[in-house]
Structure formats: structure tokens, C-alpha cells
Write a structure and sequence with these properties.
Rhomboid-like fold; Rhomboid family intramembrane serine protease; 286 residues; protease; hydrolase; transmembrane helix; mainly alpha
């Protein structure tokens, strides 16, 4: 095969690897014809190719896409598992370190919004000491994540999850007393319920089971004490809105519309947060 590139040579005239000029190599790449030392050789369907040609060929092959434009990946739902591991790790830390340290530093309360706004997201990775609280949320996250993460792709799924978590805190900010303290992933989980509803609607699937499940979980928040239905509502609405942007974006300019829609939801949530904080009474220290 004729060489498409000049073949580098050593001082003695022997061919050398262009990536490692100190190594003589009599093995040439089947694509470009350049010498390739053992470290730069890659087995191909026919003969040997150099690492540069393999990389170029890989970039030229379009990646598989999910039905909503994300990168399709085989295997386990990595983002879902990561979120679950973080929640379980924080739950374990709450038992292992001094009492209430985790809650005092990462739980969310509306009156802390202006001074420590990060709590609006960190609280979604905490849970009460009631084992049923984290068990239900993790079970729901596993079921929903297995269905939605492969459909959205990892990045879009993570964005919807985190925006829903933030929206859960915004729901608490808007609808709860200023001294309410909340923890839990249920706002994010309800965002995934909203996402599943939109996806099923887009696919033309049966919505009755999802509606019944949502109704039951929504009712529980009103009849069982210490459940923040406000977080459920905020997460549900935001998750559904983000998914509308993702699921209904036309193929042309899909990425722009999808990420623009998610960004618009975030801006609305930030605007609602700033408005509500501006209405808080001023505290005067005498």
C-alpha cells in the first residue's frame, strides 16, 4: 500500500514510529502506511492500524442516539445508580457522625434560601431516619430510572432529575411556612413521574396506571403527617415541563430546543425563588 504521509526514518534509514521517534518499526498501518510501534498498533479487521487512524475512524462513525436525541449506551443506568448511592451514603453518614450534623448543614428550610441557596438541591440527597422514607424513594428512583434514563440518555436524565429536585424546594418555598425543614428525594422522584407521564403521552401509551399511581402518592402527602406534598407538586410540574421540551422537540435544532426548554424552566424557578425571598419580612436585631 502506498503511503499517504511521509515515512519518518532514523539516522540509519530505518523507519521509526512517528509518535515515538526513538523506536524503529517495520510494521506499517494498513490505512495511512506510516510505521507503528507496538504501543501504537491496533488490531483491525484486516491487518494493523495505528492509533491515530483508529481514533479518526471512531470519530467518523456517528454515535447511536436514543429516541429523544441522547447518546444511547448499553448496560446499567449509571446516573440512576449514582443518585441512589449518594442518597444511601448520606443516609449512612447521618448515622455515623454526630447527631443532626447532616441536617443542620444540608437540609432545606425557606428562611435559609437567601443565605444558603445550595440547600435547595443538597436536601434532595438526605432522608429522615425512618428507613421507609429512603426505601420508598430509592425503589421508585430505581424503577423510574431504569425506564427513563435509557430513553433520555444520561445527561438529559440527570438534568431533569436535578431540576425536579430544585423545583421541589421551590414548591416548599412558595407553599410552606418559612420555618419548614424538608429533606428527601421525593421532589426529584415526582419529577420523574411527571417525565414518565409525558413520555407515555408522546408514545401514545396507556396513561391510566400512571394517573392512578400519581393520585395515590399525592393523596398520601395530604393524609400522612410530615410529608411535603409541596415538594411533590413542585417536582412533578418541573419534571413534566422539562420533558415536554425534550420529548416534543423537532429533529431540526433538537438540542437547542431541548436545552433551551430546560434552561427556561430553571430561569422560571430562579425567578419564583427571588420573588418569594423578596417578600420575606426583614429581621431587625435590637
Amino acid at each position: 500500500m502506498s503511503s499517504a504521509y511521509p515515512v519518518p526514518e532514523s539516522a540509519t534509514g530505518a523507519p521509526v514510529c512517528p509518535r515515538h521517534p526513538d523506536r524503529v518499526s517495520y510494521v506499517s498501518c494498513q490505512r495511512c502506511g506510516r510505521p507503528a510501534c507496538p504501543d501504537c498498533q491496533r488490531s483491525a479487521a484486516v491487518g494493523i492500524q495505528c492509533v491515530d487512524c483508529v481514533r479518526a475512524a471512531t470519530k467518523a462513525v456517528p454515535s447511536r442516539k436514543t429516541m429523544f436525541g441522547g447518546v444511547a449506551r448499553a448496560g446499567r443506568p449509571v446516573v440512576t445508580i449514582t443518585m441512589m448511592v449518594l442518597c444511601v451514603a448520606m443516609f449512612a453518614l447521618d448515622w455515623a457522625i454526630p447527631k443532626d450534623f447532616i441536617f443542620q448543614n444540608f437540609a432545606y428550610a425557606p428562611f435559609l434560601t437567601e443565605s444558603e441557596p445550595w440547600r435547595m438541591v443538597t436536601s434532595a440527597f438526605l432522608h429522615s431516619t425512618n428507613i421507609m422514607h429512603i426505601a420508598f424513594n430509592m425503589y421508585a428512583l430505581w424503577i423510574l430510572g431504569n425506564a427513563l434514563e435509557p430513553a433520555f440518555g444520561r445527561v438529559r436524565f440527570l438534568a431533569i432529575y436535578l431540576v425536579s429536585a430544585f423545583a421541589g424546594s421551590v414548591g416548599v418555598l412558595l407553599l410552606s411556612p418559612i420555618d419548614t425543614v424538608v429533606v428527601g428525594a421525593s421532589g426529584a422522584v415526582f419529577g420523574l413521574f411527571g417525565a414518565l407521564f409525558v413520555v407515555q403521552k408522546k408514545r401514545g401509551g396507556d396513561l391510566r396506571q400512571i394517573v392512578v399511581l400519581l393520585a395515590i402518592n399525592a393523596a398520601i402527602g395530604f393524609f400522612i403527617p410530615n410529608i411535603a406534598w409541596q415538594a411533590h407538586l413542585g417536582g412533578l410540574i418541573a419534571g413534566a415541563l422539562c420533558t415536554v421540551a425534550v420529548a416534543y422537540a423537532p429533529a431540526k435544532k433538537r438540542n437547542l430546543i431541548q436545552w433551551g426548554g430546560i434552561a427556561a424552566v430553571v430561569l422560571i424557578l430562579v425567578g419564583l425563588t427571588l420573588y418569594k425571598v423578596s417578600t420575606f419580612p426583614a429581621f431587625v436585631i435590637s
